[in-house]
């Protein structure tokens, strides 16, 4: 499972419009793309009961409301949900999206960061953020950044992945030094230009800052 900031490139580019001022769900992804049923196509009727829940999906490429945009729902199900559906707890579209929302509520990333004193528009050591999250969740998350570009001085905090076992219990995320799972579905963040934050300083950008 992964939580994303509202488009960290809003700090340096002019393509953002009214980003949310809180962390959002990016997705719930299996480590591997084995046993996926690609013939199981997305059916929006199956998740209508969930549409009263507000789910924002934000990436470096777009900023849109999840339950308002059919193409992204289709993408998440057909690329990731059809693989996750091997688990009984995720074996329908309603279960897959509903469990994603449940896990997000349980993690409560927004309030957790606030309680830890980790606030936007501030510089941090990556180790301090990881240690703080470990103190709450009891497992090591994967903190991802937008690498330094152009005249930027530091990497930007962009995404926090929290990992679960097959029975959906929290577990340590893969150490950056370990080999990455293979297949395009295994590394969704990589296609967005994100990477595991390097040791040292990062900047936690303002959640709702834009330059327009």
Automatic annotation (TrEMBL):
<feature type="active site">
    <location>
        <position position="76"/>
    </location>
</feature>
<dbReference type="GO" id="GO:0043202">
    <property type="term" value="C:lysosomal lumen"/>
</dbReference>
<dbReference type="Pfam" id="PF00445">
    <property type="entry name" value="Ribonuclease_T2"/>
</dbReference>
<keyword id="KW-0378">Hydrolase</keyword>
<dbReference type="InterPro" id="IPR033697">
    <property type="entry name" value="Ribonuclease_T2_eukaryotic"/>
</dbReference>
<dbReference type="InterPro" id="IPR036430">
    <property type="entry name" value="RNase_T2-like_sf"/>
</dbReference>
<dbReference type="InterPro" id="IPR001568">
    <property type="entry name" value="RNase_T2-like"/>
</dbReference>
<comment type="similarity">
    <text>Belongs to the RNase T2 family.</text>
</comment>
<dbReference type="GO" id="GO:0006401">
    <property type="term" value="P:RNA catabolic process"/>
</dbReference>
<dbReference type="InterPro" id="IPR018188">
    <property type="entry name" value="RNase_T2_His_AS_1"/>
</dbReference>
<dbReference type="GO" id="GO:0033897">
    <property type="term" value="F:ribonuclease T2 activity"/>
</dbReference>
<feature type="active site">
    <location>
        <position position="26"/>
    </location>
</feature>
<protein>
    <submittedName>
        <fullName>Ribonuclease T2</fullName>
    </submittedName>
</protein>
<keyword id="KW-0458">Lysosome</keyword>
<dbReference type="GO" id="GO:0003723">
    <property type="term" value="F:RNA binding"/>
</dbReference>
<dbReference type="GO" id="GO:0016787">
    <property type="term" value="F:hydrolase activity"/>
</dbReference>
<keyword id="KW-0540">Nuclease</keyword>
<keyword id="KW-0456">Lyase</keyword>
<feature type="active site">
    <location>
        <position position="80"/>
    </location>
</feature>
<keyword id="KW-0256">Endoplasmic reticulum</keyword>
<comment type="function">
    <text>Ribonuclease that plays an essential role in innate immune response by recognizing and degrading RNAs from microbial pathogens that are subsequently sensed by TLR8. Cleaves preferentially single-stranded RNA molecules between purine and uridine residues, which critically contributes to the supply of catabolic uridine and the generation of purine-2',3'-cyclophosphate-terminated oligoribonucleotides. In turn, RNase T2 degradation products promote the RNA-dependent activation of TLR8.</text>
</comment>
<dbReference type="GO" id="GO:0005788">
    <property type="term" value="C:endoplasmic reticulum lumen"/>
</dbReference>
<dbReference type="GO" id="GO:0005615">
    <property type="term" value="C:extracellular space"/>
</dbReference>
<keyword id="KW-0964">Secreted</keyword>
<keyword id="KW-0325">Glycoprotein</keyword>
<keyword id="KW-0255">Endonuclease</keyword>
<keyword id="KW-1015">Disulfide bond</keyword>
């Amino acid at each position: 499972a992964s939580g994303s900031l509202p488009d960290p490139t809003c700090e340096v580019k002019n393509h953002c419009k009214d980003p949310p001022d809180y962390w959002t769900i990016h997705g719930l992804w299996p480590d591997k793309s084995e046993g996926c049923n690609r013939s199981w196509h997305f059916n929006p009727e199956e998740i209508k009961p969930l549409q009263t829940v507000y789910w924002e999906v934000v990436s470096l490429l777009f900023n849109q409301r999840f339950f308002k945009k059919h193409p992204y729902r289709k993408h998440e199900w057909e690329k990731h949900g059809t693989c996750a559906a091997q688990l009984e707890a995720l074996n329908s579209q309603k279960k897959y999206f509903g469990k994603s929302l449940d896990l997000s509520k349980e993690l409560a990333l927004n309030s957790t960061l606030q309680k830890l004193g980790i606030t936007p528009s501030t510089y941090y050591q990556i180790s301090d953020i990881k240690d703080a999250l470990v103190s709450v969740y009891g497992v090591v998350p994967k903190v991802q950044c937008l690498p330094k570009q152009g005249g930027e001085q530091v990497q930007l905090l962009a995404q926090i992945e929290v990992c679960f076992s097959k029975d959906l219990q929290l577990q340590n995320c893969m150490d950056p030094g370990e080999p990455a799972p293979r297949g395009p579905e295994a590394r969704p963040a990589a296609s967005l230009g994100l990477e595991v934050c390097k040791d040292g300083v990062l900047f936690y950008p303002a959640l709702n800052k834009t330059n327009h």
